[in-house]
Amino acid sequence: PRAVSDITDGVDNFTELDGANSIAITTISSSTYALVASVDDDGVQIIDITNPYQPTAVSNVTDGSDGYSHLDYARSITTATINSSTYALVASSLDHGVQIINITDPYTPLPIHSVTTEDAGYSFNKPRDVVIRVVDGISYAFVLSTPGGPSTLH
Questions:
Q1: Which of 2, 70, 83, 127 has minimal CB crowding within 10 Å?
Q2: pLDDT digits over 31-63, tens only?
Q3: CB 46 within 8 A of CB 33
Q4: 104 close to 28: Cβ distance less than 8 angstroms
Q5: How many C-beta atoms lie closer than 10 Å to residue 30's C-beta?
């Protein structure tokens, strides 16, 4: 493999890449996007990589702005398409939770919900990874926390 392009935080509208820690790739309509979770910028950068030779900053979200309350030290990101909507789930270590973002329109991501240690039945201690799996037609998010074991969200 060889690099075909590079991007830099603070250049060409890329503003949420400092401390890039996790990446998820998804296709929405006919375009392919990379979503990057950044621990130092406390947010997510959405990048159109349909043409990998010319990646384009599409949008970004930051902890503490526009309804995003659980992206502090955004450590891990995953995506899922449920029905006709596409979502990103971000594990936030310092907020002890998971931020759920509707990215069906990647140019206008929307905060949908967040799940934290304060929510009944969940015990997150600095979550460090999140994955989504469908079991018997039901979508579950599995969250790995430190030092405890995984928690399951339905």
A1: 2
A2: 999 999 999 999 999 999 999 999 999 999 999
A3: yes
A4: yes
A5: 6
